[in-house]
From TrEMBL:
<dbReference type="GO" id="GO:0016787">
    <property type="term" value="F:hydrolase activity"/>
</dbReference>
<dbReference type="InterPro" id="IPR020084">
    <property type="entry name" value="NUDIX_hydrolase_CS"/>
</dbReference>
<dbReference type="InterPro" id="IPR000086">
    <property type="entry name" value="NUDIX_hydrolase_dom"/>
</dbReference>
<feature type="domain" description="Nudix hydrolase">
    <location>
        <begin position="22"/>
        <end position="152"/>
    </location>
</feature>
<keyword id="KW-0378">Hydrolase</keyword>
<dbReference type="InterPro" id="IPR015797">
    <property type="entry name" value="NUDIX_hydrolase-like_dom_sf"/>
</dbReference>
<comment type="similarity">
    <text>Belongs to the Nudix hydrolase family.</text>
</comment>
<dbReference type="Pfam" id="PF00293">
    <property type="entry name" value="NUDIX"/>
</dbReference>
<protein>
    <submittedName>
        <fullName>NUDIX domain-containing protein</fullName>
    </submittedName>
</protein>
Amino acid sequence: MKIIKRLTDADIIGAGGMSGAKPRRTARAILKNNNGRYALVYSAGFNMYCFPGGGIEDNEDILTALKRELMEETGCSCDAVEELGIIEENRAHCDYTQISYYYVVSTHSVLLAPSFTNLERKNGTAVGWHTLEETVKLITRPQFDTAQKKFLQARDIAALNVYLARINASCDLLEKML
């Protein structure tokens, strides 16, 4: 999978330095249902929207983690999965690194209610389904004041930009064919 963005403290908070911490690995998705709506996970505790996904457990491959996380956070199965790209984060200010593997996923059914962790429930986590226009606004519009929120937002914006370029290219190609 191709690296689509590297985010550092210099990009997000204007500070130098690099962390040498072992990276946390995550699997994340731009998840679209058969009604053309996109899943976003909202955390009332953080007052922000993010694409669904989470940590890859020890001895778990990326796609298994992706399917597990999407089931836990949205109650949905993965019907079609395409690679989108990798986003690397290096947060020297808190000695943290993360590698996020992003996918574009289609789902045709909601199987179960989400099964959030106790911490996610405490933070008021919920999943919602939004139009593409709403998704773009909810991910890009807020201006956050903490480094953590700025990193989370920048990560999802980078993935969203690659996705939008991909679907716009597909639309352009389709228009040329008609």
